Amino acid sequence: xxxxxxxxxxxxxxxxxxxxxxxxxxxxxxxxxxxxxxxxxxxxxxxxxxxxxxxxxxxxxxxxxxxxxxxxxxxxxxxxxxxxxxxxxxxxxxxxxxxxxxxxxxxxxxxxxxxxxxxxxxxxxxxxxxxxxxxxxxxxxxxxxxxxxxxxxxxxxxxxxxxxxxxxxxxxxxxxxxxxxxxxxxxxxxxxxxxxxxxxxxxxxxxxxxxxxxxxxxxxxxxxxxxxxxxxxxxxxxxxxxxxxxxxxxxxxxxxxxxxxxxxxxxxxxxxxxxxxxxxxxxxxxxxxxxxxxxxxxxxxxxxxxxxxxxxxxxxxxxxxxxxxxxxxxxxxxxxxxxxxxxxxxxxxxxxxxxxxxxxxxxxxxxxxxxxxx
Length: 374
Description:
Layout: E1 13-18, H1 24-52, H2 62-65, H3 77-94, E2 113-116, E3 121-124, E4 127-130, E5 137-138, E6 148-157, E7 163-171, E8 185-190, E9 194-198, E10 203-205, H4 209-212, H5 214-222, H6 226-254, E11 257-261, H7 265-268, H8 274-280, H9 282-296, E12 299-303, E13 331-333, E14 340-342, H10 343-360, H11 368-371
Parallel strand pairs: 8-11, 11-12
Antiparallel strand pairs: 1-7, 2-6, 3-4, 4-5, 6-7, 8-9, 9-10, 13-14
Pfam families: Cas12f1-like_TNB (PF07282), OrfB_IS605 (PF01385)
Organism: Noviherbaspirillum galbum
Domain Probable transposase IS891/IS1136/IS1341: 184-270
């Protein structure tokens, strides 16, 4: 049996930390100048395309923005360059010759955004020094930034007027490598009624956080209380994130290898189950599991969960309820070996078998042909 080890690649995380409100006025001022630079390169790019039928790349704007800081633009030259490069990337992704203008006032005001490069940022004594801003930024350092090598990022404003710094960060400490045994592995099945079912029999119910506050949200929306609506949406998002953080941490601390089903959240979000799927937040949960596992030295892998629900985890025969109405059946008995199963726990055990089979090379993928025996 092979020993499982985590990837040797560097773990790069995007850390989001809230900046203290006393800096809001200074940041709004910088965001105003960011909008001016963005609109300038937007118009410049469009005029060059009209005249020459070519697009300016990020570094092409440097010739036109050189000396802008000395001329009165209240931004560091590196920030101006970062804005131009971000604009070029966004225009290419959108496949448009011109993007939407960033608006600094009125009802259509663009939320504040200030990009920066790694060389423009310094961390010292719990504060961040950002080039172009005279005073250090105080923040709630919940991650311990002194333990990371900081990279590029941006400062952004949310709909409630709160400011955050988003940084690409690489942990200075090397990820711990733990020896693993197959007995320390777990399969995880994601669902809507039960958010998580594990191969060792644990079942955790879905929180239904959106539906719990849906009535209050409806009242606030009908009363056109914009701030109240935003506050409720933020509360739902924060509760969901907290639930995902706590659960993912428990799994990473408890197991040496984690295998999870690759349920397609994007596709299900287009069905009548959309509200429940979005409320569950499967993608966010898997992302948390992935980066926490990488840093802790835990093996993490997504596996194809096809037929995992209807295949008996004991005899591998496909005897579970297959029709759409069968999704309501939470427990069933295999007609081949008489094993009684909780539907989601059985699925998680099949996911575990598939994950270990990939590594050991001895367990085939569950297919209709392989599972139709008997």
